[in-house]
Amino acid sequence: MDFETALLKWYDQSKRVLPWRSDPTPYHVWLSEIMLQQTRVEAVKGYYARFLATLPTIPDLANAPEETVLKLWEGLGYYSRARNLQKAAKVLVRDYQGILPKDEKVLRTLPGIGSYTAAAIAAIAYQEKAIAMDGNLGRVYARLVGEKRVLSLPETKEAGRRYFEERLENRPGDFNQALMDLGELACLPHGYPKCEACPFVSFCVAHQAHQEIAYPVLAPTKKKKQESMTVLLFSYQGRYAIRQRPSQGLLANLYEFPHKEGIDTKAKLQEWLVKENLPYISIRSLGRYTHIFTHLTWKMVGYEIVLEKEYPQEGWLYVTPEEMKQTYAIPSAFRFYQDKIGTK
Ligand code: SF4
Fold first, then answer.
1. How far is the centre of ligand 1, averaged over its atoms, from the C-alpha of 179 (Å)?
2. Domain tally, the chain
3. 196 and 249: one domain?
4. CA distances in angstroms from 260 to 138, 181, 344, listed in the order given
5. Is 155 a catalytic residue?
6. What are phi and psi of 290, to 5 degrees?
């Protein structure tokens, strides 16, 4: 049995049932692939359904207020993905009658669409002979052939892409999704893969050599930068102070609780409040939380400070917990503290 036949036979028996696979229009494939970057499948399902219920078409996405798009993305993280999605939708409405082109090269000119996403849209939505090389496909390739080069190198990725392309004949969409599923279900990233369930067990180089976990070869990881902060949930008569982050940089335009540099003890915070002339009724400790971004870690400690009177600061809004949930996109880095509101 040839490579593609064996792979698709496995796929037809083992594939995952996923919402975006039941109606793989170009918009659905695009949206799901962007959401799935850096995010687990289970987490994406709810977001995907809500997003399409509110913005069912590319023109709807193009014409929506940015606040709506960010609110629908709230908690998924990597918000530049949402912004680029909308930027690309505007280009599509302006230049392509609101339809995603099927040419990979043209797709790659759109904001937020890199070679992986372009290939996924071309293959899955348009049945073009394209290979969407991501970490899953890279890992499967590296183990199949015993690839000694570092997986993240462009030449390694290109070698993997060519390897699969040469074996793709008939069903590009299923071929790509089969490899994605194989990487998720059998050729696992952590620990030992489930080779007994794999259609390639008889010729996989890593398996034959009992060296599965030696592949793929990874580049040494860089140490993440660390920042520490004290998060301040100022409340006055049931409303909480939030502010909008700057329009550039990390978590741009999202809303956050005010915070100050460093990890303050309660005593140190009390001193600061007195110095700032901020009369308060009580301070409640909300505990420590660490949020990990791709290249950065935030070490945080949080306090709820019930104020005697509203402390007006430029750009601050005092909103109810309900308004915060309904209207303002708060990144998940602050969700730990947002969830403490109303608890004892
Ligand atoms: S045989 Fe094992 S290591 Fe090789 S591709 Fe299949 S699951 Fe991965």
1. 11
2. 2
3. no
4. 42, 44, 24
5. no
6. -115, 125
| Protein residue closest via CA to atom 4 of ligand 1 | 204
Mean pLDDT over residues 141-163, rounded?
96
Q: Are residues 206 and 281 in the same domain?
A: no
Q: Give the mutation target among 145, 192, 205, 207 for probing the ligand 1 site: most ligand atoms within 8 A of CB.
A: 207
- As a dihedral over the C-alpha atoms of residue 57, residue 61, residue 65, residue 67, rounded to 10 degrees, the angle is 110
Same domain (yes/no): 123, 263: no
- What is the per-residue pLDDT for 344? 61
Strand partners, 111: none
Kindly state whether residues 249 and 208 are assigned to the same domain: no
Q: What is the mean pLDDT of residues 280-296?
A: 93
Question: In the chain, how many H helices and how many E strands?
Answer: 17, 7
Q: Is residue 169 part of a domain?
A: yes
Domain residues for 268? 225-338
In ligand 1, the atom with minimum distance to the C-alpha of 199 is 6
Residue 343 lies in a domain: no
Whose structure tokens read 């309900």? 322
**Nearest protein Cα to ligand 1, atom 2:** 195
- Residue of 4, 33, 196, 256 with catalytic role: 33
Which of 186, 214, 242 represents a domain boundary (last residue)? Answer: 214
Q: Within 6 Å (CB) of ligand 1, which residues are found?
A: 140, 143-144, 186-187, 193, 195, 198, 200-201, 204, 206-207, 212
Structure tokens belonging to residue 176 = 């790509």
User: What's the gap in Å between 207 CA and the centre of ligand 1?
Assistant: 6
**Which is the closest atom of ligand 1 to the Cα of 205?**
4
| Domain termination site, one of 214, 246, 269 | 214
Q: Is residue 79, in this structure, part of any structural domain at all?
A: yes
Q: What is the pLDDT of residues 62-99, one digit of tens each?
A: 999 999 999 999 988 888 999 999 999 999 999 999 99
**DSSP assigned state of 217:** B
- Report pTM: 0.77
Q: For residue range 13-35, what is the model confidence (pLDDT) as tens digits?
A: 999 999 999 999 999 999 999 99
Question: Do residues 233 and 255 touch, judged by C-beta distance below 8 A?
Answer: no
Which CATH number characterizes residue 280's domain? 3.90.79.10
Task: Give the pLDDT of residue 294.
Answer: 80
Residue of 180, 212, 213, 215 to test ligand 1 pocket, by largest number of atoms within 8 Å of CB: 212
